[in-house]
Amino acid sequence: MNKFTAVGLLTAFVATGSLAHDLKVDADESLAMVAPAKGVQIYECRQTSKGQEGGYHGYQWTFVAPEANLFDTRGARIGHHYAGPQWEGADGSRVIGAVKARADAPTKGAIPWLLLGTQSVGAKGAFSGVSSIRRVNTVGGLAPSEPCTAAQAGKLERVPYTADYYFFTRN
Known about the structure:
Helix content: under 10%
Strand order of the largest sheet: 1-2-3-4-5-6-7-8
Distance between the termini: 24 Å
Shape: elongated
């Protein structure tokens, strides 16, 4: 285990202690692996929905998808994370997730911490038995701070982020 991962695991342990109630996995699940991720959160400048009088309210940055590489504790790339949200291993195993719980990140300017339930949608392998994923230790990834205007409609912004993904399986 490298220094980066050890520090990340310690930070997650301390921080998740206070968030354990919000991001708690089921009693019959156990930790299978931890995968640090590095990538981007993609946002698009979009017109907001219609108001009561049929007019539009304006424009806002809307989350589109993540794009990130997943690494093992030695720093070797083991897969990637993308729209769906999906996590896919180098072995072709893949899960799709759905948010079960969320908590504000303890670090200002970071995307929320999440607990996701999963369903296997790929080949048998490292990710096929995953039942839950916890995203913690997030850094960055929030929507752009620059205004989203009519002139920018359709513009995509790729905002860097890092996170640790904890993958759990049923006992």
